[in-house]
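Limitations
The structure tokens in this dataset are predictions for the assembled complex, not deposited experimental models. Users should treat interface geometry with appropriate caution, especially where small molecules or nucleic acid strands are included. An illustrative entry is reproduced here so readers can see what is and is not provided.
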Amino acid sequence: MRQLASHTPIRATLKGVKEAIPLLGGYIPVSLSFGLVAMQAGFTTWEATAISALVYAGASQFLFVGMVAAGAPLWLVVVMTLLINVRHVVYGPNLAALLPRSRHWPWLMHGLTDQVFALALTRLPQLTAPERFGWFVGASLLAWGVWVAGTVVGATAGEAFTARWPLLGEIMPFALPALFLTMVAPRFTDKRWSAALGCTIISALLFTLYGWSNVAIPLGAACGALCFYMVKFQAQGSHA
Amino acid sequence: MSHALWLAVVASALGTLLMRVVPFLWMQRRLNSDTGLSNMPQWLGILGPMMIAAVLGVSIVPVNPNTISWLATAIGLVVTLLVWWRVRSLGWPVAAGVCIYGVVQISVALL
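Predicted assembly:
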């Protein structure tokens, strides 16, 4: 056993599992809620679990079951689901230089959620090259497994669970902003980055507060990127 | 679930997977190619950290927004930042932030 644990790929995988644990503070309550909402919308436990396992994208899953329950045309349900998930397009290219080539990526990239991307983009540069593949496997599989298991529990015992521990569903999700804060904080390296990151955080927060939570991430990031380029433009202008 | 609904699930899953896989594989090939296009575009390198910051902005909104949960969020974030400043790691700041957030919420619930 000790021999196995000292093997680098396994150690790297375990490291990924360990470092993804803070993500579960957000995944468990949301997946429980999804299981519960899917049951209330008329889906069976098996169906809710299949949606979580196959689609594996929080906000779009809620939209999917909500639209189906409301009787929306299925083609529109698919289009809206994909539109919400289109932000994932920029995640892969950002990690491409950090991860080795492998024939397993076509199925492993299924685990590339918002949270796993944020964690990976922060941690992968700090790891050695041989550790990175195993780390990603560990972190993404833990997150996916807990998401699916949480859906099963939510669908079978979600009501009893939330009735017994009502505060748990409010406290645990705070692990996500706390984790993302520790990832963003080291990037406040100069005025330009600070302005752009601050602009992103505030605009994404405002979009969410005003009911645009489904598009808050791409729109917030676009506002920040715009700010980044505008600050550069003004700095050049003042020198001229 | 009807066959049509299963088809919708599979189409949504496949579309989402392709959006995750194809750009990743495309960039890996581009980085390893001999065409001279070996660098990632600058805007993409900027968009990555912005995406993380946006996820932070979205996740700051409490599950049930009210005065107490906003107060607990503000205190929790300050404590998280202070602990991060001291230890510069991911685990302990998150644990400290969640504990303080929980203490504020439970204290108010018990009052």
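Some entries come with short summary sentences. For this one: Chain B touches chain A through 72 residues (CB under 8 Å).
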